[in-house]
Amino acid sequence: MKKTLLAAAIPALLAANVSAVELYDDGKNSFAIGGHMTIQANASDGDVNVAGNSPRMNFSWNSDLGNGYKLDSRIEYGFSDVVGDADNVLFHRLGYIGVSHEDFGRVSIGKQWSAYFVASQATDQPIYISSDALHTYGGAAGSHGDLGLGRANSAIQYTNNFDVAGGNFSFVAQHQGAQGNFDDRYSIGMAYKHGDLRVAYAYSGGDVTFDATVSPAMVTDNTVDVNTQVVSANYGSYGDGLSLAAAYSWAENLQGLGIDSFGYEAVAAYGTGTFTYAVKHQYLENDTELFGKNGAAFNHTFATVEWNVASNFVPFVGYTVEHDLDVLDANGNVAKNDNNFAIGARVYF
């Protein structure tokens, strides 16, 4: 069987719209700066709010180590406030070192895109709103970094891929050591791509100890397995003709102690090269009746248009229709979100 480029299996490189400016390349070593600045104005219920949409900057150093081995490393910071005058706006997003070989695979260590992201990234495509219904970015059980779901903290990964039956099979195995309330956590992500079709599956699990003060009376053990799984499928390439993607995720205790949950997302898009039109639906439900949290907790549909003025400049508009929810707010009333209109722009570095 013939091996393909290992880079195709690395979670960080599966994300859409990866962009960087190479500042140095001597044929053996290279240094690049990447990231983006994204700002959007949101209008909802008569109010207008201007904010950043996940802006970040990263620095990458890659080297050819010889004998088929290659080094890749990256540090990335996000900006919590780019439109005001807040202090301490930088926060850590990524920081890892990886060594790869075309035959032996890749080993990496640090804060990096997770094995879970191999499958959950399928619907995380439009600029306007990220994928929030697939448990990728954590829940009441902890942050996605500690849980190893989005960008995994202190993670060790092994990545490899193989050509199989005319397509390519890739996988990422991940371990995070015990720390604080989190026991050892193990994750696996795998995908098979054949032509324009890609299917993927991921699992992440491990024990978490909850604060006793948040335990409902019927729960006697505060240390439980917090696990989540996701399956996804996508066809085509976002922004290039027709593309379709769907994902379904289910979890135990991630939304809270004793709370099971499931979520799904689907996106259909068509890109002409200049414009990309997309429609996406996101839904998340808690199906355990604890603390009045049973039912739909996240439920909306949005449409967006992205205008590729240049390869590094993409203005966009979006409109979200919020559907009925079942969960209760802090006052004991059924929660309700307002429809939202947004206009913004992204500049890639």
Descriptive account of the structure:
This protein is mainly beta. It has a single domain, classed as Beta Barrel (Porin), CATH 2.40.160.10. 3% of the residues lie in helices and 58% in strands. The chain has helices at 11-14, 117-120, 144-147, and strands at residues 20-25, 29-44, 47-52, 56-66, 69-79, 90-101, 105-113, 151-164, 167-176, 185-194, 197-205, 207-209, 223-225, 227-237, 240-252, 260-272, 275-286, 295-307, 313-322, 340-348. The strands form two sheets. It has a 16-stranded antiparallel beta barrel. The two termini are 38 Å apart. The mean pLDDT is 89. Keywords: Membrane, Signal.
* Largest sheet, strands/sense/barrel: 16 strands, antiparallel, barrel
- Broad CATH class: Mainly Beta
H/E element string? HEEEEEEEHHEEEEEEEEEEEEE
Number of domains: 1
- Overall, the morphology is globular
Q: Which fold name fills CATH's third level, the topology? A: Porin
CATH architecture: Beta Barrel
What's the overall average pLDDT, rounded? 89
Tally of DSSP β-strands: 20
Distance between the termini: 38 Å
Low-confidence stretches: none
Subcellular location: Cell outer membrane
Organism: Ferrimonas pelagia
Keywords: Membrane, Signal
Protein name: Porin
